[in-house]
Amino acid sequence: MTFPAALAEAIAAATGAPFGAAHLATVGGGDIHQACSVSDGARRFFVKLNTAARLSLLQAEAEALAALAASGRVRVPQVVCLGVSGDKAYLVLEHLDLRQAGDAAALGAQLAALHRVAQPRFGWARDNWIGSMPQPNGWHDDWIAFWRDQRLGYQLRLAARNGYGGTLQRDGESLLADLDTFFDGYTPAPSLLHGDLWGGNHGYLADGTPVIFDPASYVGDRECDLAMSELFGGFAPAFHAAYREAWPLDPGYAVRRTLYNLYHILNHANMFGGGYAAQAARMAAQLVAQIR
Ligand SMILES: Nc1ncnc2c1ncn2[C@@H]1O[C@H](COP(=O)(O)OP(=O)(O)OP(=O)(O)O)[C@@H](O)[C@H]1O
């Protein structure tokens, strides 16, 4: 059976209700996947498509969405099914009519509630992805070592392989060597994170209910989600205020924010090149100046 008939059959099997001749419409292409909407006239779903070889990106997304949903603290699109048909990998989600404005304060409070759910260790059972780049995980007790080896160090080495050397590498290595300095008097607790919480990964239902999507989840310092939420803007002030009211931040966050966002800027440099490597070098220099 060819695509999208196979997709329609998978949806029917997953939902236990007939799904007729599917009309698949492209609604956009992110940088990573093709975003589609599929409808038989009666029901509608949101479908992310990629090549069959990239099924693991969609599997990781489905796993993260399931973990966030299981927390019961935040609203995410429900996973319907995922699979491969021919040369295509697909992830089918409930279709949500998302808008840009809504109850931002509720999102702040919900994210704090998600972060407050106690987790035993840092990391994640499986390696996953941040954008289209691998994100190494495994379970760890030592957050600082995790951030050094699985996050900053990993991206820094990728950057070196991509030709981004010079001060970025010199300052990056200094940071890795002195990472403890940034955690004086602060012991992060393990929290389930969205992991890629930039403004483009949240929206609101018609009644104002906030929704977060497109996660790259793992268990880490809650400050990572907050740092990313501030990196490119896009969240209403009420979001930030409500989070801090629900769970105030340690004063050291002001500096660690740059440390945590350096990971994402390095990742952007490794994915897109352009000015991101220079931005990463500036951030690393700024952080090294804090050590001296
Ligand atoms: N469940 C959903 N129902 C309807 N629309 C959705 C749903 N999830 C996401 N969208 C919309 O589709 C867009 C693309 O979704 P998403 O960010 O998951 O794709 P992506 O390809 O991973 O994006 P990027 O490459 O930019 O990270 C979102 O910006 C959002 O507006």
UniProtKB/TrEMBL annotation:
This is Fructosamine kinase family protein. The keyword Cell membrane does not apply. It comes from the Bacteria. Belongs to the fructosamine kinase family. Gene3D superfamilies: 3.90.1200.10, Phosphorylase Kinase, domain 1. InterPro entries: Fructo-/Ketosamine-3-kinase (IPR016477), Kinase-like_dom_sf (IPR011009). The keyword Repressor does not apply. SUPFAM superfamilies: Protein kinase-like (PK-like) (SSF56112). GO terms for molecular function: kinase activity. The lineage of its organism: Bacteria, Pseudomonadati, Pseudomonadota, Betaproteobacteria, Nitrosomonadales. Keywords: Kinase, Transferase.
